[in-house]
Design goal:
This protein is mainly alpha-helical. About 70% of the residues lie in helices and about 0% in strands. The chain has nine helices and no strands.
């Protein structure tokens, strides 16, 4: 399947709608209407190299040009001369980053929900330890609700880790944590997540070396 052709086909449908007046122009320079932006994006997208895994993300979008236009407007595209090829590359990186962040958030949210549901059936024989684990995993969940905590390389690794929340907790030294000390708790969790990333990279490199021998 030519994935780029599929995405470009979806873009062409949006461009045709804009040309037929089915899309209202949004405030900006007179020469930079919705149709102009759509046309430049589609034309540029066709000739710029887009990695296969990013094309997979674009294929999930119902209205790729509309989403690009939102990004264009949000980043003041009307206010300066646009290097369309560079802008297209930056948008592709942004779209991948957004997709991976959303996927990580959903993954950790599901793990946290399962973990909390299981706490109901546990006997409260060690309340301090239970509260400490809940506080730790609550912080893991909280970290992935916010953007900018990890670079793209780390996020790519973390999104492939099964039972990420449990694996992160096993990196903790076992000390009791107080949820009220948010800065210390955040630092401890980030350190443990960093150890998970490091382990996964070492394991991946070992597997690659084994394949080469």
């Amino acid at each position: 399947m030519d994935k780029k052709a599929v995405v470009v086909g979806a873009m062409q449908v949006e461009l045709d709608n804009a040309h037929n007046g089915n899309v209202e122009p949004i405030a900006g320079e007179d020469y930079m209407t919705v149709e102009n932006v759509y046309y430049m994006m589609k034309t540029t997208f066709e000739k710029v190299f887009i990695p296969e895994h990013v094309l997979d993300i674009f294929m999930l979008q119902e209205f790729p040009l509309s989403k690009f236009y939102d990004y264009f407007a949000d980043h003041d595209g009307f206010r300066h001369e646009v290097d369309w090829e560079q802008f297209c590359r930056e948008y592709s990186i942004y779209r991948e980053c957004e997709y991976v962040e959303e996927r990580l958030h959903r993954k950790v949210e599901a793990e946290y929900k399962t973990f909390m549901e299981a706490q109901v059936d546990k006997a409260p024989y060690n309340l301090e330890k239970a509260i400490s684990e809940i506080s730790f995993k609550m912080q893991v969940f909280s970290i992935f609700r916010y953007k900018g905590c990890f670079g793209m390389g780390d996020m790519r690794v973390l999104q492939e880790v099964d039972n990420l929340m449990d694996k992160t907790y096993t990196k903790h030294n076992g000390e009791l944590l107080i949820s009220a000390d948010e800065k210390y708790l955040w630092a401890q969790v980030m350190e443990c997540l960093g150890k998970v990333v490091e382990d996964e990279r070492v394991e991946s490199e070992a597997e690659e070396d084994a394949l080469e021998t």
